[in-house]
Amino acid sequence: LVYLLSYINCMQNVSLVIADDGVSTIVPVLASGLMSVTVVDGSVNVQGIVSFSSSSVVKSTTASDIEVTTGVLTGTTGTDAKLTISVSGGKLYVENRLGGSKNIHVIINT
User: What is the pTM of this model?
Assistant: First the structure.
């Protein structure tokens, strides 16, 4: 029974609307997991998967429009024309520098 309790998986579905040069934060249920990101916009096709822990983010996809870093994002921290994902202080940050407001769907598995 203890083994089963320690193996419980949690999924978070989050829909974000982020203005250009804007940032949203997400507090994951656990400190590490996988995050799937999809920009829902007819003019931009951005999809990717990253793995995260309390102190790092690693891009698990070859998506060229996504970059990862650590630290608090401010809206203009990442590269212009990119979606930047970061972790800091137990929060995940998603920064939109793709140009224009974007609908972003996030699924987090912890």
Answer: 0.90
